[in-house]
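Folding Problem: From Residues to Backbone Shape
Fields: amino acid sequence; protein C-alpha cells
RECORD BEGINS BELOW THIS LINE
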Amino acid sequence: MEKLVELPKKGKLVVIGDTHGDFNTTRIIVKNFIYKKNHYILFLGDYVDRGEKSKENIDYLLSLKEKHDNLILLAGNHEMYPVVECSPSDFWESLNEDEFKFYKEKFLELPFCSYGNGFLALHGALPEIEKIEDIEKIEIGDREWFKIIWGDFRDKEGEFLGNFLGRPKFGRDYFFKIMNKIGFNVLIRSHDPYAPERMFENRCLTIFTSTSYGTERKIALLNLNKKIKSVDDIKIISLDKPDIKK
C-alpha cells in the first residue's frame, strides 16, 4: 500500500476538495482536465455520504483510476468509516454485506498524502512527523493517521486546541512546527467547509468542492514546475462562475 504519493516536477496539478456524492461536479472536473497533456488530478477524499449520488461518484472515480495514471485519490474520513465511524453515513448504510466489503478493501488502499515542489496535500491536519518519509510508517487507525483523516486547524495560538465532535483541532504553533520540520511551504487540505480559505500567513489552503453545504465550489490549480511558496502561487478556480465548461 502506497501511503505517500510524490508528484511529477513538470506539468499542472488540479486539486479537488470534498465532493460528497456530488457526481455532477466530479464529471465537470474530469471532463475539463483528465485528458489535458501533463495535467494531474488530485482528489483530497470524502467522495461518499451527504450527496445523493455517492455510489455513482465513487464508482466513476474508481473506474477512471484504473485507466488514468494522472488521477490520484486520497483517503478522507468518510472512506474510513469501517475504521472510525462518521455521520452521516448514508452511503455505507445503503450497502449490502458484499458491497461493504468491496468498498472497505478499496478505500483501505487509498494513500494518505501527496506532495510536490514546496507543498503537501492531505484531507485533514498534519501528523506529527520529523520528515515526509515518516508518512510511510503511519498505520491505519493510529494517532497520526487520525490527525490526517479527522484533524482540523483553527487560526489561533497554540498546538492542540481540543476536540470538537470527535475532531481534533490544532493551532498556529502546531502548524508551523510541523511544516518547518518537514520542509514544506504550503499545506492544501479540505475536510472543513467552514474553515477560512487561507490561514497561517498564506501557508494553509482549505478547498471544498461539493454542493452539500451550500458553499462555493472551488478547485486549485498549481504549476508543478514552480516551487510553491505561498497560497498566492496557487490559482483558485470557482466552479460556480463561468471559468469551467459545464
In short: The chain has one domain: 4-238. The mean pLDDT is 95. The first helix runs from residue 23 to 33. The longest strand covers residues 218-223.
